[in-house]
Amino acid sequence: MTKPRLYSGMQPSADSLHAGNYVGALVQWRKMQEEYDAFFSVVDLHAISVPQDPAELRQKTRRTAAQYIAAGIEPERSTLYVQSHVPAHTQLSWVLNTITGFGEASRMTQFKDKSSRYGSDGTNVGLFTYPILMAADILLYQTQVVPVGDDQRQHVELTRNLAERFNSRFGEVFTIPEAKIPADSARIYDLQNPESKMSKSGDSPQGILWLLDEPKVLQKKIMRAITDNDGVVAFDRDAKPGVSNLMALYGAVTGSTMQQITDEFAGHGYGDFKKAVAGAVVAEFEPVRERALELLDDPAELDRLLAVNAERANEVANETLATVYEKVGFLASAR
Ligand code: TYM
Question: Is the pTM of this model over 0.90?
Answer without folding.
Answer: yes
